[in-house]
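> example.struct
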């Protein structure tokens, strides 16, 4: 990690959100709260950061985010549809402009041939003005190498990078 706080992605996310007077909430599974922790490492993050919900289990995803049983049954927790539902749900329940979700396999066990260790889906959902029809969610799939701690760090930083790109595009 760099010592220059201004060049770190969490600081750049904060600057971008603050400039636009926008807010973000996070739904985390495999990162266990790391995305929210990185965001709150930045002084003044309460200007734009609302909450981070750690929904590690299927039950937590259903109870805290209303992720559908159908998505979990059909695709599993580590999937594009579940990441999409998580990001939209945290955005909408928090009433924020942006919702970010992470769901994956940090390892060292838990992978499968279809979903190897290091697999993650990161979703970024944006709330457009009511009745505009422009709200959306983009889900990206990545595979990271490293030990569990390294994978979680890479996922969290990628989630913030994806958020920053989306914010700057709007």
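> example.seq
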């Amino acid at each position: 990690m760099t010592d220059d706080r201004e060049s770190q992605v969490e600081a750049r996310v904060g600057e971008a959100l603050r400039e636009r007077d926008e807010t973000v909430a996070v739904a985390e599974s495999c990162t266990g709260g790391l995305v929210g922790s990185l965001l709150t490492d930045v002084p003044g993050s309460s200007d734009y950061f609302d909450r981070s919900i750690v929904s590690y289990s299927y039950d937590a995803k259903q109870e805290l985010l209303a992720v559908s049983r159908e998505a979990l049954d059909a695709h599993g927790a580590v999937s594009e549809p579940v990441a999409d539902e998580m990001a939209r749900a945290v955005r909408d329940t928090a009433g924020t402009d942006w919702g970010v979700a992470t769901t994956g396999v940090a390892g060292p066990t838990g992978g499968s041939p279809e979903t190897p260790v290091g697999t993650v889906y990161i979703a970024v959902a944006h709330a457009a003005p009511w009745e505009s029809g422009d709200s959306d969610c983009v889900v990206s799939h990545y595979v990271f190498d490293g030990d569990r701690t390294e994978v979680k760090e890479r996922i969290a930083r990628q989630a913030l990078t994806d958020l920053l790109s989306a914010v700057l595009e709007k």
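> remarks
The two ends are 28 Å apart (CA to CA).
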